[in-house]
Amino acid sequence: MDRRIALKNMGLALGYTVATPTIISLMQSCKQDSGPVWTPVFFSPEEGAVIMQLADLILPKTDTPSATEVGVHTFLDRYMKEVSESEEQALMKLGIGNFMEKAMADSGKQVGDTLTTEELEPVLAGALKKREIDEEAKIYETLMTYNEAVAQGQQAELDGDVSRFAFANQFRDAVIWSYKTSEYVGEEVLAYLPVPGEYIGCADLAELTGGKAWSIS
């Protein structure tokens, strides 16, 4: 599917919120952090190198910028550090760790930041592959049990496959959400109206915006 079509058809990713003052300030600060030298604050340097490649695998450069070109990686790093709950942080850390271990095992490499896009893509595709309804239901039940245990301060473990599934889906949704809320996409890709005018309740989106979803920026 064309990326523009996918973006304008998707709403906010599950589990994420509309723009708040905290998130807006993060977006603004991340504009200065998206240059060639980037030091993660939540992810480790090795994890940061992998995060950048995965973000661009999910949203590569086409007729619009790639995910990293609009600073998705820096925003997500700061969001995880400053906004997300401890349970979400723990699940993200566990997931990226298991994801990198799988990629290194498959490629025979010992260091995560030497992994290439070609080595990461099969692991991402495997984690995001379509599953049978019963299998997916069991995975979500396992994740609920894990999250409840973590929330209660108990020791909890996740199978590597389940952990990678959770990470890949969590990260994909976060990348798309962050991309849609970036300044460039909000003003140049989606339908942007800085000063709202007349409210038209019943009208074809194709007539109002040329088929584009409204920008949430």
Overview of this structure, please?
With 217 residues, the protein is mainly α. It has helices at residues 3-9, 21-30, 45-58, 72-82, 86-107, 117-128, 133-151, 160-180, 183-189, 205-209. Mean pLDDT is 78; it is low at 1-21.
Reconstruct the topology from this structure:
Layout: H1 3-9, H2 21-30, H3 45-58, H4 72-82, H5 86-107, H6 117-128, H7 133-151, H8 160-180, H9 183-189, H10 205-209
Radius of gyration: 18 Å
Into which percent range does the helicity of residues fall? 55-70%
Number of helices: 10
Sequence of secondary-structure elements: HHHHHHHHHH
Low-confidence stretches: 1-21
Number of strands: 0
The end-to-end distance, rounded to whole angstroms, is 24 Å
Q: Mean pLDDT, nearest integer? A: 78
Globular, elongated, flat, extended or rod-shaped: what is the shape? globular
**Structure class:** mainly alpha
Strand content: under 5%
Oligomer: single chain
Most strands sheet: none
How would you describe this structure in keywords?
217 residues, mainly alpha, 0% strand, globular
